[in-house]
Amino acid sequence: MLCSRIRTTAIAGLSAAAFGLMADVAVAAWEVNLQPPVSPIGRDILELHNLIMLICLIIFLVVFSVMFYSLYAHRKSKGHEASQFSHSTKAEVVWTIIPFLILVGMAIPSTATLIKMEDTSKADLTVKITGYQWKWQYEYPEHGVSFYSNLSTPRAQIEGIEPKGENYLLEVDNPLVIPTNKKVRFLLTANDVIHAWWIPQFGTKKDAIPGYINEMWTLVEKPGTYRGQCAELCGKDHGFMPIVVEAKAPEEFEAWLETEKQRQAKQTADLNRDWSKDELLAHGEKVYVNCVACHGAAGKGLPEAFPAIAGSPVATGPIAEHVSLVMNGKSGTAMQAFKNQLSDLDIAAVVTYQRNALGNSTGDVVQPSQVNSIR
Ligand SMILES: [Cu+2]
Known about the structure:
Blueprint: H1 2-19, H2 21-29, H3 40-73, H4 89-118, E1 125-132, E2 135-140, E3 145-149, H5 155-158, E4 176-179, E5 184-190, E6 195-199, E7 204-208, E8 214-218, E9 224-230, E10 243-248, H6 250-272, H7 277-287, H8 289-295, H9 319-328, H10 344-356, H11 368-374
Parallel strand pairs: 1-5, 4-10
Antiparallel strand pairs: 1-2, 2-3, 5-8, 6-7, 6-9, 9-10
């Protein structure tokens, strides 16, 4: 124990001196292997990796021993002379057959694992995963549950204003939840460009391609939180769409699914009912935090750059145009589209708020159902 610590420290020190800070960070944690697998496929992959590394190491040792021995024992200074033969059928047969046998020996366990990876049949649960620039959507088609999963690392950490947290850029608002010890089938696709869904500890990684559905599966044996990342360069925020999976014991998973179903049912009910003006204003004030950066807390905007909401022709003009501007944004300006980020209720509330506060008083009330019909 002590000995290994001294060794680790010594190596860390040496590498730090040799390679600078980056090497120090990697070696100090001493994490040079794959992450510990938590699924049968993950384990197979790790075993394959170890086996093939071992075969490579043996080949390396044999080839280099023969080579260095030959160089040393038959050196010119001892009076050896190079043989002049140009062809040896025996040697060629040997150096063809041995590598062939080695390759076949490696192909057998690899193929067995590949076939196992592709077998998505008899799944206990199906989850559809859709990649977006730059977030993930998870759907449980058998249960009518779906939600988005966004990066939750605070901006201040990214901009270096606050110290970075433990799971910096590897944390999300809504993780994917799956049951342990159940075969979970993933259907993968994307909405815009190619992404790839990857959790190293599951040993699963596959491209999410627009217009195609890829399949893969996992069976997680240990409850816990597992983290991964989008593994296909997908644009400027590629590094900002992490993946977090929470594996829960089956009973806990069922309970979570039930709460989630009820939450979403309430959302649907909220969408369909009529809201009072006061309710909308109260909620709209909260949603308006998304707009403050440009339009200002008091709705005064910033001259030349961001228009004021107070007395704005849009916020006092036709409702449909106001809703559609907030939903679709205005291309070529900083006014972005909010339709994927805000729900129908959010948009109805913020539009009602802008029309009745911040210096406006049109008296208009916009219902979520109205927003939905424009969407
Ligand atoms: Cu991506």
